[in-house]
């Protein structure tokens, strides 16, 4: 099975995940095309290790295939990279004062902090253009806000990454 992981890392992920924080697809049709590439690759690996193609005698869904191979969907991996980008930026592993100054941290009063609508850690303006919301920094902050109740930016990089993998259900 380690050959499978090495094959996935070297042949597939290097191409599909290159600069994913910057070049992440926004359109569902583009995301679907990328997932189809990984799905085809997963079916071929399944054939190699199990001796039959997953479409015969009974079809096996893409979700079951990626769970069986412990690889996770490309969308989940893009979210992992976005979450890691936010962590690296806020913990000074990436030195970019121009990006840091654009981050607005929300600090609600104590009585409002436990309410679910006040769990967003970063402030994202509501009157923004779609292009602004799709920028790498803002889309990463939006992604972090979606998972912020479960994450802590003060954690060690390895612990933070492991927690992100658990939340996003990524095995490898």
Topology of helices and strands:
Layout: H1 2-16, H2 20-23, H3 28-50, H4 62-69, H5 74-90, H6 97-100, H7 130-133, H8 136-147, H9 157-168
Give your account of this protein's structure.
The protein has 172 residues and is mainly α. It folds into two domains: 2-72, no CATH class; 76-168, no CATH class. Helices cover 58% and strands 0% of the residues. The protein is built from nine helices and no strands. The chain has helices at 2-16, 20-23, 28-50, 62-69, 74-90, 97-100, 130-133, 136-147, 157-168. Helix 5 (74-90) runs antiparallel to helix 9. The radius of gyration is 19 Å and the shape is elongated. The chain starts with a helix and ends with a helix. The mean pLDDT is 83.
Keywords:
9 helices; 2 domains; mainly alpha; single chain; 172 residues
* Biggest sheet descriptor: none
- The arrangement of helices and strands along the chain is HHHHHHHHH
Query: Poorly predicted ranges (pLDDT <50, ≥5 residues)?
Result: none
Into which percent range does the helicity of residues fall?
A: 55-70%
- Give the helix tally: 9
């Amino acid at each position: 099975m380690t050959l499978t992981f090495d094959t996935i890392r070297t042949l597939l992920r290097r191409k599909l995940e290159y600069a994913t924080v910057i070049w992440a697809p926004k359109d569902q049709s583009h995301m679907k095309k990328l997932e189809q590439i990984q799905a085809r690759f997963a079916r071929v690996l399944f054939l190699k290790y199990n001796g039959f193609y997953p479409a015969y005698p009974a079809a096996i869904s893409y979700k079951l295939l990626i769970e069986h191979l412990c690889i996770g969907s490309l969308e989940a991996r893009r979210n992992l990279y976005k979450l890691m980008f936010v962590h690296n930026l806020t913990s000074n592993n990436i030195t970019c004062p121009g990006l840091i100054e654009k981050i607005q941290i929300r600090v609600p009063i104590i009585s409002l902090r436990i309410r679910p609508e006040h769990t967003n850690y970063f402030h994202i303006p509501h009157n923004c253009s779609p292009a602004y919301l799709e920028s790498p920094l803002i889309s990463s902050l939006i992604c972090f806000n979606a998972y912020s109740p479960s994450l802590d930016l003060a954690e060690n990089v390895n612990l933070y990454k492991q927690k992100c993998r658990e939340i996003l259900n990524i095995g490898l």
